[in-house]
Amino acid sequence: MLCPPIHYGMTVLNREAFKKSISVLALRTPAKKVKQIQKSMSPDMLDLPRMRNILSDSDSKETRLLLLRHDLEDVSDLSPESKTLIDDEELVVIEHTINLDYSSWSTEQILHAVIPDTIKEIPSAFTQAGHIDTFSHSLTPNPAQMNLREALYPWKHLIGQVILDKNKNITSVVNKLSNIEATFRYFQMEVLAGDTNMVTEVVYWNSRLHTEHERLVKSFKKNQLVCDVFAGVGPFAIPAAKNGVTVYANDLNPESYQWLQANKTLNKISDTKLKPYNLDGREFIRQAVKDLESAGSLDKDGWKMFDHFVMNLPDTAIGFLDAFRGLYRGKRQIYDSLDSPPKLPMVHCHCFTKSDDPAQDIAKRVEQVIGSPYDPSSSKLHWVRNVAPKKEMYCISFPLTPDMIFGPKITGKRTQDQAGSTFSSTPSANVKKPAI
Which pLDDT band holds residue 204 (cuts at 50, 70, 90)? Predict the structure, then answer.
């Protein structure tokens, strides 16, 4: 295989170091027969990326040079068909020098030439996040995101520069430095090469989750009320609002809140369809419920609830489920008095699990936090994706129950909790696993 010069130890890119000259055999061919002979001898023609195998002949305007395979040492090594063609056409075989440089080599070839063989995985893959844009909608290329292993850090800026050079639609290469920060849901990035502007406009905020976004959004019906607790910049909230759903959307991160508002404006969504908040998750759930009631439009029984609560913060969302305990305590009397009690809200809570039995593990954790069991017959456990070896992401969807949202019902001088709750620290035998 043809390779560039080896420069193990190079950590600052020197493009001039990748020049190389090779000698190949060439056929001096009449210009009018070039295409015909090239086609007939295609298996024996030079086949290198970014390298033409038909060149002009400096000795004559009536002929062209057809370059043969770079690994060919003598015409005797050609196929019988090619040798016969050369004899029949009386073609002259000459030597020709090809001058290769940095532009002649692929990303993988350059990186293999500078990173020692002791490091087995040479990076070349990256994620394109969108295109850099300062919200002026100027046409700019895509940033490339990498997750480099620490062993590659000595070459990280060289790697970034090579990827930038070899992908003309990219203006910057960035490297993820840490896991997602729990409070504001961001991870630190460093710019390895190119533009340092990190404001990015994307079709999907997370390309690995766009299928999950679409799945949930399609489950919401027009004119339903959705409470998006950890909305980010709006990957659930924006499409849902555009589909006619009324969304109360929240994120604690001020940057996410700012771009949620910007995305609302960009997508021409009205104030009645999307209401942004910048609060802690628990505080937001309580505030959104109050705001929904004070917004009016209660039914004849004085009833109004959200249809769905979306909790897309898989690392910690389950811990926020305690916000639903007694959330609608003041509505208990109305609920009990109705001949046909209304449907209670559905919760869609994303989470991670490393358990060999995801259904049991998630059920146990959910019920421990929320304080009572959910109804497995009307709930669903949906596998989202594999995050890491033995770490899976799921979405547990379950309806809130009266015991969860109204709090313990008074029975004489004792509450139901005092009399004996149906909740246990592990799923009981009669609690079925949600369907996956």
Answer: very low
- Compute the C-alpha angle 86/91/97, nearest 5°: 105
Residue matched to tokens 């990190």: 198
Binding-site annotation: residue ranges for S-adenosyl-L-methionine = 213, 251-252, 280-281, 312
CA pair distance 254, 185, nearest whole angstrom: 11
Class of residue 364 by CB neighbours under 10 A (exposed 0-12, middle 13-18, buried 19+) = middle
Annotation: binding site:
213, 251-252, 280-281, 312
Lowest mean pLDDT among 15-19, 164-168, 268-272: 164-168
The helix/strand/coil state of 78 is coil
Measuring CA to CA, how many Å separate 322 from each of 283, 326, 356, 405, 426? Answer: 12, 9, 26, 10, 17
- The pTM assigned to this predicted structure is 0.59
CA distance 201 to 133: 6
Mean of the per-residue pLDDT values of the chain: 83
Residue 431 maps to a domain: no
Reported as a single tens digit per residue, the pLDDT across 77-127 is: 899 999 999 999 999 999 999 999 999 999 999 999 999 988 877 776 666
DSSP string of 188-208, one letter each residue: -EEEEEE-----EE-SSS-TT
CB 137 within 8 A of CB 148: no
Does residue 86 form part of some domain?
yes
At 161 the pLDDT is 94
The answer to whether residues 184 and 235 belong to one domain is no
Question: Domain for residue 429, yes or no?
Answer: no
Residue 426 lies in a domain: no
Q: What is the pLDDT of residues 233-264, one digit of tens each?
A: 999 999 999 999 999 999 999 989 999 999 99
CATH of residue 376: 3.40.50.150
In terms of domains, do 95 and 186 share one?
A: no
- Indicate the helix (H) or strand (E) that contains 225: strand 225-228
Instruction: Identify whether the C-beta of residue 214 lies closer than 8 Å to the C-beta of residue 220.
Output: no
Of the residues 180, 201, 222, the one at which a domain ends: 201
Q: Which domain holds residue 309?
A: 210-419
Residue pair 112/83 in contact (Cβ under 8 Å)? The answer is no
Tell me if 363 sits within 8 A of 431, measured CB to CB.
yes
